[in-house]
Amino acid sequence: MNPTRAILMKLGSVAFFVVMQSLIKATGGRVPAGEVVFFRSAFALPVILFWLHLDGGLATGFRTANPMGHVWRGFLGTSAMGLSFAGLVLLPLPEVTAIFYAAPILVVIFAAMFLNERVGIFRLSAVAAGMVGVLIVLSPRLSIGSGTGMQHAEALGAMLMLTAAVFAALAQIFIRKMVATERPGTIVLYFSLTATLLSFLTIAFGWVVPTPRDAMLLVIAGLLGGAGQGLLTMAYRDGDASLVAPFDYASMLFAVVIGYTIFGEVPARSTLAGGAIVVAAGIAIILRERHLGLKRARQRRALTPGGQ
After folding, report:
1. Which of 188, 180, 166, 184 has its CA nearest to residue 107?
2. How far apart are CA 210 and CA 232, in angstroms?
3. Domain limits at 231?
4. Residue 135 contacts residue 200 (beta carbons within 8 Å)
5. What is the mean pLDDT of residues 199-223?
6. In the chain, how many domains are there?
7. Are 278 and 130 in contact (CB under 8 A)?
8. Contact at 8 Å (CB) between 291 and 120?
9. What DSSP state is assigned to residue 304?
């Protein structure tokens, strides 16, 4: 364990992912979302394979005890990715980030539904507060009856991002089940492979030949996505999840700075207020998960002869 390195790795991965989103946003929707998924996944593969080689896990990276689990996780994760890329070009970057914070909140709900996890009043209250925060972020997009074309596009973007958060949360549920038998590197590798293959199914919806500039942006986005995934995995290897996970929310700071300096986006008050509520709820859930994890560990030790 190396907590300082874990935090730095986590912050690096968050920064890479936000820059990746910025590069995709800079294409302005000229490349279909399915094609963007291809660039993001295919060009992440060389980085992931190189990372596995350095980590000594390349030889075992393709071994899996749950191939169908990877397929379903890949389908859900690819759907989340495609929807988020479609919504990304329609909304300011800070707003995209704040809406996607709904994913870890939804994981708590889905874990109770599909994994039979017990959710007490504390976490239920945090989930309720988090969803209120999401609604505050969405509030400017909810009244679109007589809006302009741009307002309708932004409302569509908000719905796409919220749906993407739902799919991302469901993908996390599959990951929670898969980690019992699968290595983190294997999960990362098969997701990129699955997403690359699934992206080809969208060719029928109209791929384009990107301009050299757009192609360069998307290739770099894919490389950054692979690097960010590697840093993320190493962060959770070097530090406890309860220490590392809250630094996810540094993405809002990065998104605000990049959105303002690159795209001239000034975050709305509703985005900042709602985002702050969602961040607080998310951190509360993380801390509660840590407390429950320690409590379960103590109970397991008490039930094991000699505490071993």
Report:
1. 166
2. 30
3. 3-307
4. no
5. 95
6. 1
7. yes
8. no
9. S
SS3 of 65-126: CCHHHHHHHHHHHHHHHHHHHHHHCCCCHHHHHHHHCHHHHHHHHHHHHHCCCCCCHHHHHH
Q: Find, among 259, 202, 238, the residue nearest to 19 by Cα.
A: 259
The whole-angstrom separation of Cα 275 and Cα 270 is 8
pTM exceeding the 0.85 threshold for the entire prediction = yes
What three-state secondary structure class fits 140? helix
CB 155 within 8 A of CB 85: no
Residue with the two structure tokens 């992931």: 48
Q: Which of 249, 238, 221 lies closest to 184, judged by CA?
A: 238
- CB 218 within 8 Å of CB 39: yes
pLDDT over 70 at 292, yes or no? no
Kindly state the DSSP code that residue 180 receives in the 8-state scheme: T
Total length of the chain: 308
Residue type, 48: I
Of 68-72, 134-138, 235-239, 288-292, minimum mean pLDDT range: 288-292
Q: Quote the CA–CA distance of 187 and 99 in Å, as a whole number.
A: 25
151: DSSP letter: H
Of the pLDDT bands very low, low, confident and very high (cuts 50, 70, 90), residue 194 is very high
Distance between CA atoms of residues 206 and 32, nearest Å: 7
Of 87-96, 256-265, 297-306, minimum mean pLDDT range:
297-306
Both tokens of 125, joined, read 């209250």
For position 298, what pLDDT does the model report? 42
